[in-house]
Design a protein that fits this description.
Elements (H helix, E strand, L loop, with lengths): L2 H11 L5 E7 L5 E6 L5 H9 L6 H10 L4 E8 L10 H16 L9
Antiparallel strand pairs: 1-2, 1-3
Length: 113
């Protein structure tokens, strides 16, 4: 099996995890807290920023101004799934995001949220 096929297989076997992520501007310290139902999609977030298509206009403008090397990405917390038939991943992810927004306060001059 060649390397490309190995990597593709590894990607497919990696479990899909929902969670909260942080984008930090190292130049000015501003933060963006986001959530995703699939943390593997963070490369897609980078792609949208690099191509000017991110929904947060403030973050997109500063990405263009400072360049991609001024920003770091970090997974803050992975959502712990429960074996409960009433577990609502989307709802629990929203609660987790609210927790991190309250803790980091990335609003106004402090951030992009």
């Amino acid at each position: 099996m060649d390397r490309k096929k190995e990597l593709k297989q590894l990607y497919k076997e990696t479990p899909v995890e929902a969670g909260i992520y942080l984008i930090k501007n190292r130049e000015n310290g501003k933060l963006f807290v986001g959530s995703t139902r699939n943390l593997k999609t963070l490369n897609g977030v980078k792609f949208t920023l690099e191509n000017g298509g991110h929904t947060n206009s403030g973050l997109a403008a500063e990405w263009k101004e400072y360049g991609k090397d001024a920003f770091t990405f970090e997974v803050l917390e992975v959502l712990k799934k429960k074996n409960d038939p009433y577990f609502n991943e989307k709802e629990e992810l929203g609660k987790l995001e609210e927790k991190w927004l309250a803790e980091l306060q990335p609003f106004g001059e402090r951030g992009y949220n």
